[in-house]
Amino acid sequence: MTSSSSFSASSGARKNMLDREVTPFDEASSSERTTSFVKEEKSSEDTPSVSPPQAAVPVALPQPAHRSRKRKHPQPSTANPGPSGLSKKAKRAPQHPPIVIPEYSWVHSDVDKHMSIYNTRDKVGQFVVVHPVCEDPFVEYAVVKPCRARERIYMKPSPDNYDFTYVYDYLFKEYNVTFPLIDFEAGMLTLINIAPSQLHPNSWAFVRCFKLLCGHLGLMPSISVFTYFYQMKFGKLVGWVSLSASHGSPLFTLYNSSYKHFKPHFFKLCCCSEDAEKRLLFRSNRVPRHPLYWQKPTRFQPLPDYRLTAEEKVAIGAIQ
User: Fold this and answer.
1) Euclidean distance between CA atoms 99 and 236, whole angstroms
2) DSSP secondary structure of the chain
3) Is 279 left (phi over 0), alpha (psi -120 to 50) or beta?
4) Sign (positive or negative) of CA dihedral 293, 299, 305, 306
5) Sheet holding 142-145, edge to edge
6) Omega of the bond prior to 24 within 30 degrees of 0, cis?
7) Is residue 320 within 8 Å of 228, Cβ to Cβ?
8) pLDDT (tens digit per residue) in 279-318
9) 128-185: per-residue pLDDT in tens?
10) What would the pLDDT profile of 250-276 be if each residue is shown by its tens digit?
11) CA nearest to 7, candidates 211, 213, 179, 215
C-alpha cells in the first residue's frame, strides 16, 4: 500500500535496530527490569534447551521354563474418565497457563494464552531486515526487541523502564504500516483510546483501505468521515477491538473472514534517541502520538450532520 521509495534505508541499517541502546534505560544494564511488575526472565536464546526425559523402554526378561505362569491382565481403571477418554490424573496441564494480574482483570482470558514467537534476537532481526517498520530517517533510531516468555501483548513497563509499544508483524507484512503512524491513524487510535496492537487486523484493514480510498478520490482522510461509516464493538472483557459498519452495507469487505493466527506474532518497538523518540512515539512534552499500551477502549459516537463541516459532507457524499 506504500510505495517502495518510502523505504530507502539499507537492510544493514535495519539489521542494526537490534544492537542499538535504548535511552534513558538500557535493558542490558539492569537486572531488575519488570514488565507489568513481573520480573523479566532470561531470553530463551540465553537459556540452554533441556530435552524432556525419555520414558524408559521396558525390557522383557526371560522367565525360567519350570516356573511358567499365566500372564496377569491389568484390570481396567476405576477412575472417572474425562471427555477425552483419559482419566483426570492423566490430563495434561495447559501449555501456557494464564498470568493473573489484578491490574488487567478487564482483559479477556484469550489474550493471556499467547506468548510471542519472537523470543530471540535472531527471529526479530530476520524479520526487520525483510520488512521495514519505520520510514526514513526514523529507521536510524528505532530499536526492536524480542519478548520474554512471561510477556503478553497487553502488558506495560514498570515505572523505571523505557517506553515502548508492542506491534504485530502483520502490520508490516500485509498492510505496509510504518512508524510513526500518520495523523489519521494515530488520531483514530487516540479517539478509541487503544494501542496499535489492540485493534483487530480486519479493522486495521478498514483504516488502511479508507486512507487509500480518500487518496484515490483526492480527499484528506478524516476521522469524522470515517466514524460516520463505522462504529466499534467490544464486550465487558476486552480483547481485540473490532469496527463494523454503522450505515447500511459496509464500505469494505473483511480482509480475512477467519483471522486467528496473528495472536502470538508480536515484538517490541522503541527508540534509542530521545529527540527521535519524541517524533516516533511521542509529540512535544512527551505526549504520546497515540496510546502505547492496552487500556479500556472508549466508545465513540459519529458527529451529527449539523456538526459536520461542508468539506466533510462533500467527502461523505463522494464516498457513498
Assistant:
1) 19
2) ---GGG--S-HHHHHGGGTPPPSS--GGG-S--EETTEEPPPPTTTSPP-PPPPPPPP-PPPPPGGG--PPPPPPPP-S-B-TTSSBGGGPPPPSS-----GGGTTB-HHHHT---S--SHHHHHHHHHHS--B-TTGGGTEEEE---TT--TT--B-TTSPP-EEEETHHHHTS---BSPPHHHHHHHHHHT--GGGB-HHHHHHHHHHHHHHHHHT----HHHHHHHEEEE--SSB-SBEEEESSSS-SS--S-TT--TTTT-EEEEEES-HHHHHHHTB-GGG-BSS--S--------PPPGGGS-HHHHHHHHHH-
3) alpha
4) negative
5) 142-145, 266-271, 165-168
6) yes
7) no
8) 889 987 789 999 999 999 998 888 888 889 999 999 999 9
9) 999 999 988 888 889 999 999 999 999 998 877 889 999 999 999 999 999 999 999 9
10) 788 777 766 778 999 999 999 887 777
11) 179
Q: Which residues make Cβ contacts (< 8 Å) with residue 132, sequence separation at least 6? A: 7, 9, 14, 139, 172, 178
Cell 521509495 found at:
5
Give the integer Cα–Cα distance in Å for 61 and 296: 65
Instruction: Write the single-letter amino acid at 106.
Output: W
Question: Cell digits for 248?
Answer: 447500511
Residue reference for cell 483526492 = 218
Q: Are 318 and 250 in contact (CB under 8 A)?
A: no
Task: State the Cα–Cα distance between residues 289 and 277, nearest whole angstrom.
Answer: 11
CB 106 within 8 A of CB 238: yes
The pLDDT, as a whole number, for residue 141 is 85
